[in-house]
Design brief:
26% of the residues lie in helices and 23% in strands. It is of the alpha/beta class. It has a single domain, classed as DHBP synthase (Alpha-Beta Complex), CATH 3.90.870. It has a 15-stranded mixed sheet that branches. The longest helix has 13 residues. It is globular. The chain starts with 11 loop residues before the first helix and ends in a 5-residue tail after the last strand. One of its GO terms (cellular component) is plasma membrane. Its EC number is 2.7.7.87. It is a peripheral membrane protein. Belongs to the SUA5 family.
Length: 275
């Protein structure tokens, strides 16, 4: 049986107790000249207190400090590079129109190509989208490497994808991203950390050309197997805006498991083009 693995919804305090810490990246020296700050998440002993000096001379920072910094930078209208469960992404506050424009300029992206939003929990989807599928369907697929396209609600910034009434929603299977979205208390606009039409990135080094335009980079280390093309496919994008049907916008990395859930558990039909 195919299935989507995902992390459970975890409270922030539990994440701190789980033993994940953060430290400045070795790439910080390079970014001093670029005015870009790089903070690295690494597994290790829980460290919820102030930054401490490690044996290697690096400042070891807790998740709490990293999250606080990221939230502050985002609320100032900046773009932040973040790790997800699929590829590295660029994030800003979805309700900040200037920050959204900044992402488009940074990527050289066609203004008619939409950005997805990232929220911290399934419950948040209902505020920004008009949900017409069962709640359990959302929970079967999210958190996970899937983007669900739904009709947007009036709560969402009208400058985000103004050319469509639909919006893609992500809850990455990445605990840091889930808590970051919760701490921001509003959705993040999220897209891949690469220049438009170039390959998705699995390490910070792979998008170093974007660093001069970024205020902060959260370095979560390599995502998956950097030598595997399959690891660069990004999330599976599914349109669920038509009742009783689904359509595949991008196959991505989780298509087979996603289709099995949609068809076998919820009896959704693959939407066919009108002739």
């Amino acid at each position: 049986m195919l299935f989507l693995t995902r992390l459970p919804h975890i409270a922030f305090d539990a994440l701190i107790r789980s033993g994940i810490r953060a430290t400045n990246s070795a790439k910080t020296d390079m970014c001093k000249e670029l005015k870009c700050r790089v903070l690295k998440l690494v597994p290790g002993i829980a460290n919820a207190g102030p930054a401490k000096q490690s044996g290697t001379g690096c400042k070891v920072r807790s998740w709490k400090e990293i999250l606080s910094t990221a939230v502050s930078v985002l609320k100032q209208g900046n773009v932040v590079a973040v790790p997800t469960d699929t590829v590295y992404g660029l994030a800003c506050l979805a309700q900040n129109s200037e920050a959204i424009q900044r992402i488009y300029e940074m990527k050289g992206r066609n203004g008619n190509k939409p950005l997805a939003i990232c929220v911290g929990a399934v419950e948040d989807i209902y505020k920004y989208c008009k949900v017409t599928v069962p709640d359990q369907l959302l929970r079967d697929l999210l958190p996970g490497p899937v983007t669900l396209v739904l009709e947007r609600s009036d709560e969402l910034n009208k400058d985000l994808n103004p050319f469509t009434q639909l919006v893609g929603v992500r809850i990455p299977d990445h605990a840091f991203m889930q808590v970051l979205a919760q701490k921001c208390e509003e959705p993040l606009a999220l897209t891949s950390a690469n220049v438009s039409a170039q390959a998705s990135t699995l390490t910070v080094d792979e998008f170093r050309d974007l660093l001069p335009q970024l205020a902060l980079v959260i370095d979560g280390g390599p995502i998956g197997d950097v030598m595997s093309p399959e690891c660069r496919l990004g999330s599976t994008v599914i349109n669920l805006s038509t009742p009783g049907q689904y359509s595949i916008i991008r196959p991505g990395c989780a298509l087979t498991a996603t289709v099995e859930i949609l068809e076998n558990k919820y009896s959704l039909l693959l939407e066919t083009p009108d002739h």
